[in-house]
Design goal:
The protein is of the alpha+beta class. 33% of the residues lie in helices and 20% in strands.
Length: 81
């Protein structure tokens, strides 16, 4: 049995990433989408990753930014060691 999912948003406005079935929000975002969410440059994102300020995930050769990391940065919560 197939479930039809209808979404009236244009494709370019939909979040792209690994989408959670329970929330409909991505569990992880593609780098370009994360950059828009955080309003930072690609260079800044990778500097933050190298310094340990943000965690990135690699899946099948694709780099993803976990949604929890974006929420943490947008919310201003510091990362515990």
């Amino acid at each position: 049995m197939h479930t039809n999912i209808t979404n009236t948003e244009p494709l370019e406005n939909r979040p792209r990433g690994v989408v959670s079935r329970s929330t409909g929000r991505p569990d992880a975002w593609r780098v370009n989408d994360a950059l828009r969410q955080l309003s930072i440059s690609r260079a800044t994102l990778y500097k933050m990753a190298n310094s340990g300020e943000i965690r990135l995930a690699r899946i099948g050769g694709r780099t993803l930014v976990p949604d929890a990391e974006i929420k943490r940065l947008v919310g201003g919560v510091s990362r515990s060691a």
